[in-house]
User: Which sequence fits this backbone?
């Protein structure tokens, strides 16, 4: 179990009203709930019979900004919501005519478009809080959202909610635990999950751009922090999350470091024995250190490839295995590396909405 210190309260910029928000979903899609609450003040929660966790996270913040008078400072444990504004994802969406970087329609546009317009026109600001980290208000809105999803009722109040109005506390209750583990069940019947090499837990792959220089750069440091945030958010949905990484220089080595930063276990997945034998001494040392810190190592093929062509083929088979066993994935791209773009397309075809694209150029 990871120990966390009690967080400091979030300060509202420019006298804005602080509002905590959260969403919950019993399945993905399934019945869901959203909630917002002002510390020491008003709150509201709502229910949707068929929705997704991401939609509930958006709607929680949207409802708060719609309802609260004056500037609002949203505090959310959803990187999906916070990063849309902090990293200005919305600029790219609008520039591309509401298409994402894969030239596909932006998911949840019906909520995003009016919410972005409202937020930008009302001086709304955003902060991310780690979910279930001891922040009392994050716990309050989490319980309110869970209660809405379970009770199928809309509720609100002008004073802080009572225990009877909130859902049960997080840890000891089976029903709240089952709500948060619902996404894990989506992959439970996949044939690939019978493979004995798959680690226990909810496998989550991180792949993408390969670069020996990335980790030490300022962009690499930003990427490491960002990966840790996304993985932390995923761990709130999947309490037994385990990161799968091949430890190749670039996104994969940073994935191991980010998982370690977030206190999430990782498993090294190698296409064949000792793939780092031809790397530089420094890169090899990073590889060896990361291997030593892993929960375990899976080596998919026993024989070393005979040449570069065979190595590329083995890496392709490794990616195929990752796609077949993972419940979700992060793919890091830079808009230039064709190999990373190909990985993104293949993982998106296999895992759909459970794939997060991190665009390196937006972190620079």
Assistant:
């Amino acid at each position: 179990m990871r120990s966390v210190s009690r967080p400091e309260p979030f300060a509202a910029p420019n006298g804005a009203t602080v509002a905590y928000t959260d969403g919950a979903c019993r399945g993905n899609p399934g019945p869901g709930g959203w909630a917002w609450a002002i510390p020491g003040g008003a709150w509201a929660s709502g229910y949707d019979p068929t929705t997704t966790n991401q939609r509930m996270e958006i709607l929680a913040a949207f409802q708060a900004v719609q309802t609260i008078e004056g500037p609002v400072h949203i505090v959310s444990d959803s990187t999906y919501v916070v990063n849309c504004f902090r990293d200005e994802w919305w600029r790219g969406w609008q520039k591309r005519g509401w298409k994402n970087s894969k030239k596909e329609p932006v998911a949840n546009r019906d909520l995003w478009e009016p919410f972005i317009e409202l937020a930008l026109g009302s001086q709304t600001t955003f902060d991310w809080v780690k979910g279930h980290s001891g922040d009392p208000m994050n716990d309050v809105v989490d319980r309110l959202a869970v209660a809405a999803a379970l009770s199928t009722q809309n509720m609100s109040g002008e004073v802080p909610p009572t225990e009877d109005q909130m859902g049960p506390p997080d840890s000891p209750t089976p029903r709240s635990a089952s709500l948060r583990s619902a996404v894990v069940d989506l992959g439970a019947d996949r044939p690939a999950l019978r493979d004995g090499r798959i680690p226990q837990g909810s496998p989550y792959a991180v792949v993408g751009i390969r670069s020996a220089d990335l980790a030490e750069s300022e962009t690499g440091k930003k990427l490491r922090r960002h990966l840790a945030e996304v993985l932390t958010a995923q761990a709130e949905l999947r309490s037994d999350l385990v990161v799968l990484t091949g430890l190749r220089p670039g996104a994969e080595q940073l994935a191991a470091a980010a998982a370690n930063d977030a206190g999430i276990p990782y498993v090294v997945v190698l296409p064949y024995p000792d793939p780092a034998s031809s790397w530089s001494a420094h890169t090899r040392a990073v590889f060896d250190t990361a291997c030593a810190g892993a929960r375990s190592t899976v080596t998919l093929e026993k024989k070393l490839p005979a040449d570069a062509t065979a190595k590329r083929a083995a890496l392709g088979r490794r990616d195929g295995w990752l796609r077949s066993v993972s419940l979700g994935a992060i793919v890091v791209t830079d808009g230039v590396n064709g190999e990373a773009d190909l990985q993104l397309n293949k993982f998106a075809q296999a895992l759909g909405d459970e794939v997060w694209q991190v665009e390196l150029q937006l972190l620079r």
Summary: DSSP finds twelve helices and twelve strands in the chain. Residues 191-362 form a domain with the Rossmann fold fold (CATH 3.40.50.450).
